[in-house]
Design goal:
Helix content is 26%, strand content 31%. The chain is an alpha/beta fold. It has one domain: Rossmann fold (3-Layer(aba) Sandwich), CATH 3.40.50.880.
C-alpha cells in the first residue's frame, strides 16, 4: 500500500521530516511517497501532512500567498492526519498571539512563541508522552509553549507547561521530533490513525 506524505517545504527541517516519516511508515510495510509542498495543488493528494518548524511569520505568509492555507484546512476537515511541529504548531493554533501570523485555527490552543528561551537556551528532555510506552527524547529549540488549552488533549508537559497536544486529526508539538532517530511521534501522529481507520 502506498501512502502519500506531504511535507510543507517553506522552511525548517524538511529532509529530517522526510526521513522520519519514511522510517515510521516502514514499520507498517507501507510504501511512503513523499511530496514537498511549496505551492497549491499538492496537499489534496496527500494522505498525511507534516508542518515543520522555521519562522512562523514566514510560513504563515507563504501558505496564504500560495493558496496552500485553505488546502491545509480542507485536509484537516476531512480528518486526515497532520503533524505540526514548533512553528508549524504556532501556525495551526487558534491564537498565535502575534498579529503577523494568520493562524489557521485548527488546534484549540493559544501559543507563546520562544517561551523556553532563545537559540542558546535549547535543551533536550525525556518526555512522557500519552500513547508512547517509553519516554521520548525531545529537542527544544526556540520552542513555543502551549497556553490556554481548549478542547485539545494534552499529550506531554515539560516544566509544568503543555508541549504536545492532539486536537482531532492533528498532533502539535513544541519540540522537534525529527531531530532524533526516534520516529515514534511521527508514528503516533500519522500512521496510528491511518491504521485505526483501515
Amino acid at each position: 500500500m502506498t501512502i502519500t506524505a506531504g511535507v510543507l517545504a517553506v522552511q525548517g527541517d524538511v529532509a529530517e521530516h522526510v526521513a522520519a516519516v519514511e522510517r515510521a511508515g516502514a514499520s507498517y510495510d507501507l510504501d511512503v511517497r513523499v511530496e514537498t509542498i511549496r505551492s497549491a495543488g499538492v496537499v489534496p493528494d496527500c494522505d498525511v501532512l507534516l508542518m515543520p518548524g522555521g519562522e512562523s511569520t514566514t510560513i504563515s505568509r507563504t501558505i496564504h500567498q500560495e493558496g496552500i492555507a485553505p488546502e491545509i484546512r480542507d485536509h484537516a476537515a476531512a480528518g486526515k492526519p497532520i503533524l505540526a511541529t514548533c512553528a508549524g504548531l504556532i501556525v495551526c493554533s487558534r491564537d498565535a498571539r502575534d498579529d503577523r501570523v494568520a493562524d489557521l485555527d485548527l488546534v484549540d490552543v493559544a501559543v507563546e512563541r520562544n517561551a523556553f528561551g532563545r537559540q542558546k537556551d535549547s535543551f533536550e528532555a525525556a518526555l512522557d508522552v500519552t500513547g508512547l510506552d517509553e519516554p521520548f527524547p525531545a529537542v527544544f529549540i526556540r520552542a513555543p509553549a502551549i497556553d490556554d488549552v481548549g478542547d485539545a488533549e494534552v499529550l506531554a508537559t515539560v516544566q509544568g507547561r503543555p508541549v504536545a497536544v492532539r486536537d482531532g486529526p492533528i498532533v502539535g508539538t513544541s519540540f522537534h521530533p525529527e531531530l532524533t532517530d526516534d520516529s515514534r511521534i511521527h508514528d503516533l501522529a500519522l500512521f496510528q490513525p491511518l491504521a485505526a481507520d483501515a
